[in-house]
Amino acid sequence: MLITKGNLLACKESLRLAKLGYELMDRKRVILMQELSKMMDDVKELRDVIDETYDKAYRSLQRANVSLGVIDRIANLMPVEEDIKIVYRSVMGIEIPKVTIEEKEVKIPYALSVSNSRLDEVFLQMRQVKLYTAKLAELDNGMYRLAKAIEKSRKRANALEQIVIPDLEIKIKTISDALEEKEREEFIRMKLVKKM
């Protein structure tokens, strides 16, 4: 690198931008960690609810199997629902999925003559399981994406703090020292020329 005042100014500007970049990366990391922490709390709460809901649904399924016999025939009548929609929201530039399930009027897809209230209970509980599972998938995927983004931000902030900024500070000091030395030499040279 040439030792000029222009290069010194360019290095100082680069240092200012690197410090600003570090602050922004650190702020981004903190915001993402807050969002991740909130999601982790939601997941913990949801996992407790989903475990309880699965237990209830499977107990109801067992009771329905006992009262109706094996209900595979009826289960095969259930339509495949394609009512899950995924949209994305941005958190500090990170795309976080938002899973929604269209709320439609619940139509029981089997004849009442081949079922009883226990099967209706299973049907409604499994629908609830589907809602909770979709929400859990949304949160798990969001947490994964946030964790990756936090790691990336941390690496970039560390690179700025431990490599780029110290490098620029060394360059600035080297150029400043060299320019000061040149000025002293020039001053001495001018004094010698005046004496002659």
Automatic annotation (TrEMBL):
Pfam families: ATP-synt_D. One of its GO terms (molecular function) is proton-transporting ATPase activity, rotational mechanism. Keywords: Ion transport, Transport. NCBIfam families: V_ATPase_subD. Belongs to the V-ATPase D subunit family. This is V-type ATP synthase subunit D. It comes from Erysipelothrix amsterdamensis.
